[in-house]
Design goal:
single chain; 97 residues; alpha+beta; Aminopeptidase; 3 helices; 29% strand; globular
C-alpha cells in the first residue's frame, strides 16, 4: 500500500467489503489470503481482521529480479461459519468512519 494510505484503516475497510460480498452475497464458504512469509506487517493485519494461519508454502514463488530467489508464502483464511458466528460484527465494530 502506498505510504499516504498506511495506517488509515483503508485496508480494513476494503477487506470488510470483500468479505461481506464473498460470504453474504456470493455464499462462498472460505476466503484465502496469501502473503510473503517475511511480510510481518501484512500478516499482522490479516490476523487482526480474524484470519487463521493455515500454513506456509515453502519455496512457493519466484522473487522478481534483481533480488531473485524464491519466497515462502503464508496462507491465512476465514471460513463462512466464522464470519457468521461473530467475526463480521467484530470486524464491523473496528471500522472507523
Amino acid at each position: 500500500m502506498e505510504k499516504p494510505f498506511k495506517g488509515t484503516g483503508l485496508n480494513k475497510h476494503c477487506k470488510f467489503l470483500l468479505l461481506s460480498f464473498a460470504f453474504d452475497v456470493m455464499g462462498i464458504e472460505r476466503v484465502e489470503f496469501r502473503a510473503d512469509n517475511n511480510n510481518a506487517r501484512s500478516i499482522a493485519a490479516m490476523k487482526r481482521i480474524g484470519c487463521t494461519v493455515e500454513g506456509v508454502l515453502r519455496n512457493h514463488l519466484p522473487l522478481p529480479q534483481p533480488q531473485g530467489g524464491r519466497r515462502d508464502s503464508i496462507i491465512l483464511s476465514i471460513l463462512k461459519k466464522e464470519w457468521d458466528n461473530g467475526l463480521k460484527e467484530q470486524l464491523s465494530q473496528q471500522l472507523v468512519y
